[in-house]
Amino acid sequence: MVTRKQLILLWLLLVISSATVFSTNYPKVFGNDWTAAVSYVNERHDEWRKEFSLFGVDERIAVAVIFPELIRYSMWKDEIERAAVNGLYIRKGRAGANFSIGRFQMKPSFAEDVEDAWNRSSLAQEYGFSFNLQQNSDARRSRIRRLGTEQGQCRYLAIFIRLLQLRHPQLLRMSQEEQVRFLSTAYNYSFTASWDDIIRMQSQCHFHTDVIKTRNTRLYCYSAIAVDYWRKE
């Protein structure tokens, strides 16, 4: 049986850990990688805003959601993963290859889930288009082609946000900072996760920037990085 003293101690530990997560100086931690990511956003600002506005999505929120991925992005690693996805995924689907590709580090399985949810939503009728979800190489090749461009990734991101807003109407009643925290957690954790699971994952540390995770890898809270960027920009 848990005692009152143990409950108070657990609560204090949670408060301390949360304070640590959300008070980290991320620009200092990530240094040049943070600066480079900010510069990249500034370079693409006008192009991305056009894509997000097509779906009525706030650009600041959208960029904050994927900003940690811009910090982690590695060109050479992306080329290797893109080649694997182009070969194995197109032939065998997500069971063959499901690597993250592009600046926003999107997996083919993520795109599939977003496409499926879009086709079943009222948004497909509102916008007048749907995705080809057939399990064949042509549909998968088209999906990889979309994921292979920043325009395509911006549109997947915008659709992802609109779908979560539709699935969880309470999101639009939250502050923008709270929206960033929730949406970035869902983006990093799981698009299909429940509201309660996403809330539970908001303060957990699983994100890292190492090419390969080891026991010495430092883990960060994805949503805390996203919120920190949102506050600064």
Q: Would you mind describing this structure in some detail?
A:
The protein is an all-alpha fold and 233 residues long. 68% of the residues lie in helices and 0% in strands. The longest helix has 23 residues, at 32-54. The radius of gyration is 19 Å and the shape is globular. Mean pLDDT is 90; it is low at 6-22.
Strand and helix layout:
Layout lengths: L3 H19 L3 H5 L1 H23 L4 H14 L2 H18 L15 H13 L1 H6 L9 H11 L2 H18 L8 H14 L5 H7 L20 H11 L1
Helix content: 55-70%
Q: Percent of residues in beta strands? A: under 5%
- Average pLDDT, all residues: 90
* N- and C-termini, Cα separation: 47 Å
Q: Find the count of extended strands (DSSP E, 2+ residues).
A: 0
Give keywords.
globular; 0% strand; 233 residues; mainly alpha; 12 helices
Give a short summary of the structure.
The protein is mainly alpha-helical and 233 residues long. It has helices at residues 4-22, 26-30, 32-54, 59-72, 75-92, 108-120, 122-127, 137-147, 150-167, 176-189, 195-201, 222-232.
